[in-house]
């Protein structure tokens, strides 16, 4: 369920993992996603809030995404299986959350003229860092520490996914401008058609 809150990674990264690697890639990706979700909704949320008082810290640590991730880890490592009706209900709720978040993000993106996506230097800098610089650096650092094979390819695929729609949600939750992150999201997704094959090819050459 926690993976539903990082929809771009879920929507693009996991199908690629399933196609290129298979079940082992999904297993590694799920572990990556659990820790990513915790980091995203703590450090990431606090960056958007731009303040570090007790109330903001508690709001960050006690949000449903962190609690769900922790519960999911406990259930996984303790091998507890939920009853089928309860598990089915949770799955339907998770699917609904994804759809609702996509609707909110889509509504934000409709306010952005297509030509304005490419007009700001800050957008180009952010997207190039997100789509190329960060994943390439990740691949080289992992290779430097002798991470190879399936694990390297899995982490490369997940790191080169475009900017997640949650950046728009964070802006809305903290009262910030949603148009700029919407531009980042749109451009990052478009550019990923060209940058993802480059990063994946780099990881394969180093494996």
Can you walk through the features of this model?
This protein has 207 residues and is mostly helical. It has helices spanning 7-20, 23-49, 54-61, 64-77, 84-109, 121-144, 149-159, 166-173, 179-206. Helix 6 runs antiparallel to helix 7 (149-159) and helix 7 (149-159) runs antiparallel to helix 9 (179-206). It is globular and about 50 Å long. The relative contact order is 0.15.
Helix-strand sequence: HHHHHHHHH
* Overall geometric form: globular
Low-confidence stretches: 1-8
Distance between the termini: 31 Å
Helical coverage, percent range: over 70%
- Cα radius of gyration in angstroms: 18 Å
Q: What proportion strand? A: under 5%
**Number of helix segments?**
9
Biggest sheet details: none
Instruction: Report the count of strand segments.
Output: 0
For the residues shown, what is the average pLDDT?
76
Structural class: mainly alpha
Features:
207 residues, 77% helix, disordered N terminus
Write the layout of secondary structure elements.
Elements: H1 7-20, H2 23-49, H3 54-61, H4 64-77, H5 84-109, H6 121-144, H7 149-159, H8 166-173, H9 179-206
């Amino acid at each position: 369920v926690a993976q539903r809150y990082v929809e771009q990674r879920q929507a693009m990264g996991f199908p690629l993992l399933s196609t290129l690697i298979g079940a082992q890639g999904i297993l590694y990706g799920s572990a990556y996603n659990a820790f990513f979700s915790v980091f995203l909704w703590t450090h990431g949320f606090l960056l958007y809030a731009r303040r570090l008082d007790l109330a903001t810290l508690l709001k960050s640590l006690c949000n449903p995404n962190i609690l769900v991730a922790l519960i999911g880890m406990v259930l996984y490592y303790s091998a507890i299986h939920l009853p089928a009706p309860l598990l089915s209900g949770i799955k339907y709720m998770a699917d609904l959350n994804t759809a609702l978040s996509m609707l909110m993000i889509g509504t934000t993106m409709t306010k952005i003229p297509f030509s304005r996506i490419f007009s700001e230097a800050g957008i180009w800098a952010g997207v190039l860092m997100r789509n190329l610089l960060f994943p390439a650096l990740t691949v080289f650092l992992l290779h430097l520490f002798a991470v190879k094979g399936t694990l390297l390819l899995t982490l490369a695929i997940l790191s080169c996914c475009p900017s997640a729609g949650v950046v728009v949600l964070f802006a809305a939750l903290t009262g910030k401008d949603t148009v700029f992150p919407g531009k980042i999201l749109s451009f990052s997704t478009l550019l990923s058609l060209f940058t993802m094959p480059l990063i994946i090819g780099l990881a394969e050459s180093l494996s």
